[in-house]
């Protein structure tokens, strides 16, 4: 839900801006950002018009979350719900932890600290993930073991 709120709020704000993003950034810059984010996830550094290159977490915190908030307001989303969902995105940026980092950290902990072989560690990650996905708690609160 947090991802959806962030996406739909951001799309609304960007689409309604006086100067659309696609008129400020080349396709090749957007493509480079896409590939960089695919490779580095939350640790990526991307290009943004007017800001240059910066960590994606900083971009989200400084520029994209306020836009998403404005877009959700334009959709008339309840402010309490808006803030609850966007705070999850904010906490991911502040902690540099999302579902992918939790999975990788948990896998490495199981391999390194518990000396599990990769297939056993992968099974153990899945076993830990299943109850957490239904717990309705943000991933930055999930234990790494």
UniProtKB/TrEMBL annotation:
Spell out the Gene3D superfamilies in the cross-references.
Answer: 3.30.590.20
* InterPro entries, sorted: GCL_type2/YbdK_subfam, Gln_synth/guanido_kin_cat_dom
Q: Which GO terms describe its molecular function?
A: ligase activity, forming carbon-nitrogen bonds
Q: Report the PANTHER family cross-referenced here.
A: CONSERVED PROTEIN, GLUTAMATE--CYSTEINE LIGASE 2-RELATED
Q: What is this protein called in UniProt?
A: Glutamate--cysteine ligase
Task: State the organism of origin.
Answer: Phytohabitans suffuscus
Phylogenetic placement of the source organism: Bacteria, Bacillati, Actinomycetota, Actinomycetes, Micromonosporales
């Amino acid at each position: 839900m947090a991802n959806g709120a962030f996406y739909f709020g951001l799309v609304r704000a960007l689409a309604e801006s006086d100067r659309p993003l696609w008129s400020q950034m080349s396709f090749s810059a957007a493509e480079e950002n896409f590939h960089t984010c695919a490779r580095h996830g939350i640790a990526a550094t991307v290009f943004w018009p007017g800001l240059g290159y910066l960590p994606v977490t900083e971009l989200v915190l400084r520029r994209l979350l306020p836009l998403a908030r404005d877009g959700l307001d334009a959709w008339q989303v309840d402010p309490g719900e808006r803030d609850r969902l966007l705070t999850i995105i904010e906490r991911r940026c502040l902690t540099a932890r999302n579902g992918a980092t939790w999975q990788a950290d948990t896998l490495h902990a199981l391999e390194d600290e518990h000396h599990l072989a990769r297939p056993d560690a992968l099974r153990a990650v899945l076993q830990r993930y299943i109850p957490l996905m239904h717990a309705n708690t943000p991933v930055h609160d999930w234990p790494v073991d």
